[in-house]
Amino acid sequence: MNHYDYAHNLARALKESGEYQGLLKARKQLASDPKNKEMLLEFRRLQWEAEKARVLQQDVDEITERRMNQLGDLIGANTTIQEYLMAEYRFGQIMADIQKILSDALSDWFRAAAEFVVDEEEES
């Protein structure tokens, strides 16, 4: 079996996994109520704006902070959104674990690739 076959088998196994199927089911449930979906999208948009401000060493405005807290409280009490977030987390954890396994196994390649990036940046 070649590496492409292994990759296709892994993709198939992930797609058939209980975690992925649970994510699809939770996403469908979330999408069935547009208000829930919009609430989560708005919360994530505000989180993104706040994180961007922090990275740029800017203050997060009070209105954004207050709205994020309000939405966070609503999301925390909403079982449909909570179930979706938990399903998303569980599948995301699997993907992160697989990425770590691959990164660890190919650490020599990653180090070599990083060296070339650093060398190119130093030359600029």
Description:
The structure is a single chain. This protein is mainly alpha-helical. It contains six helices and no strands. It has one domain (3-123): Up-down Bundle (YheA-like fold), CATH 1.20.1500. The mean pLDDT is 91.
How many domain modules? Answer: 1
Structural class: mainly alpha
Characterize the overall form: flat
- The CATH homologous superfamily is called YheA/YmcA-like
Q: What is the first-to-last residue Cα distance? A: 43 Å
Radius of gyration (CA) equals 20 Å
Extract low-pLDDT stretches: none
Average pLDDT reading: 91
Salient structural properties:
about 90% helix; about 120 residues; YheA-like fold; 6 helices
Summarize the structure.
The chain has helices spanning 3-16, 18-31, 34-55, 62-76, 79-105, 107-123.
Give the helix/strand layout.
Layout: H1 3-16, H2 18-31, H3 34-55, H4 62-76, H5 79-105, H6 107-123
